[in-house]
Every structure is written in structure tokens, then in C-alpha cells.
Design brief:
This protein is α+β, with helices and mostly antiparallel strands and about 150 residues long. About 40% of the residues lie in helices and about 30% in strands. The chain has a three-stranded antiparallel beta sheet.
Length: about 150
């Protein structure tokens, strides 16, 4: 199963709101407020009965090459699953930095603090995504084929 099939099979939907266009690292990006939804159903009924509507809110930045189109659930999950996998595979913050060929001895304190906040934000997103996806979290993170 690939990510597109996973999104369909798990009834993952998205709401988006364009927020702004910003200049980041000498390139323009569109900033979106995104809410992912998963509706959980109670098992054992002949017709679906909603158990809960789980949501996850997060910002999404997309480059201008996408010509201003709104992100899809697949776009968002592809991005955050990649980020989460990098953090999960790392043996701590310094190991995560080395995965990106960054050396904290060559960076300013401000750069290290900014990257550490990113690392912690990804850890928080992992926890939120685990709640959103429930039992499907490990499948999404480790067992999907490439699109």
C-alpha cells in the first residue's frame, strides 16, 4: 500500500486555509494552516457509527513551484512522516543533526536553538500523529510503499 492508498483507506481528510506568502532562505513559500481529520468508526455495526472525529492542526509551508495550490492530505503526511522518521531513526538531537550533515560545533547558539526547537516540534508532531492515526501510525511511518 502506498501513501495515497493509505489516506483513502483510512478516510483521512484535510481542511486548509492560506495564511500568507513569506520569504524564507531567499525563496518565497506559501504558509497554510492545515487540519487533518480521521473519523473513527465503531466496529461491528452494519452501518458506520462515528466513534470520534480526531484532528491534528499544523502549519504547512509549500514552495512556489506548486503555484499556490493548497496542500493535500498526502502532501502533508508525506512531509511530516519523513520528518518524524528522521527523528525516530536518530539517537538523539546530535545524531539527528549529523543525518543532515550539520555539526553543532560549527553553528551559532541561535542556530542550534532554532534547530533544537525544530527537533522538539517534530517529536510533538509525532505524538499528535500517533493519536490521530491510532493503530495505523506504525503502518504509515514504516510500512508504506513509495508513491
Amino acid at each position: 500500500m502506498n501513501l495515497t492508498e493509505f489516506v483513502a483507506a483510512n478516510a483521512i481528510t484535510i481542511n486548509t486555509e492560506w495564511k500568507s506568502r513569506q520569504l524564507e532562505d531567499d525563496r518565497e513559500v506559501d504558509v497554510w494552516a492545515v487540519t487533518l481529520h480521521v473519523i473513527g468508526f465503531l466496529p461491528g455495526y452494519s452501518t458506520p457509527r462515528i466513534a470520534e472525529d480526531r484532528t491534528m492542526d499544523l502549519p504547512m509551508r509549500m514552495g512556489q513551484g506548486l503555484q499556490g495550490r493548497a496542500p493535500t492530505a498526502v502532501d502533508v503526511l508525506e512531509c511530516i512522516l519523513s520528518d518524524i522518521a528522521a527523528v525516530e531513526n536518530a539517537n538523539g538531537f546530535n545524531d539527528w543533526l549529523s543525518e543532515f550533515h550539520l555539526d553543532n560545533e560549527e553553528m551559532s547558539v541561535a542556530e542550534i536553538k532554532k534547530l533544537h526547537k525544530t527537533y522538539e516540534d517534530i517529536q510533538a508532531q509525532a505524538a499528535e500523529l500517533a493519536v490521530l492515526l491510532g493503530d495505523a501510525y506504525d503502518t504509515a511511518l514504516w510500512h508504506l510503499d513509495q508513491d
